[in-house]
Amino acid sequence: MRTTTALLIALTVAGSLCAAFAENGLDERSPFGIVCPWTDIGQTGARWTRCGAEATELVNWPGMEPAKGKIDFTKAENELGGIDAREKLFPLPILGYTAPWAGRVPGKIDSPPKNLADWDRWVNACADHFRGRVKFWEVWNEPNIEFFNGSIADYANLVKTASAAVRRADPSASVLMGTAGVDLDFIRRCYECGCGPYYDVISVHPYQWDPTFNDGWFIEKLTNLRKLMDSFGDTDKRIWLTELGWATSDKRITPDIQARLLVQAYVTALSLEHLGVDKIFWFCVKDWGGPGYGIYNDDSTKKPAWFAYQTMTGQLAGRPYMGKVGIEGARCYAFGPSRDENDAVLCLWAPGMDAAPTKLDVPVAEYAAYSISGEKQTLKLDADTAVTATPAPQYVHVPVEVAQRLAVMTDRREFPWPDPAAQQRPSSFVTVMPQPNTERPWLITGQHGVLRLYVHNGQAVAAEAEIKVTLGSASTTARVKLGAGESRETGVSLLCPIGTKPGLADLKVSAKIGGEEIAPQVTSVRVALGPTVEFLGNSYLERSMYLQPDPKSGCSESMRFGSEWTYKLDAPQSGSALVQMDVGANMAQPWTVSWSQDNATWSTLFEGQSWHGLHEGRIDGLRKGSLYLRCKGTDEQFASAVVTFVP
Question: CB–CB of 345/270 below 8 Å?
Answer without folding.
Answer: no
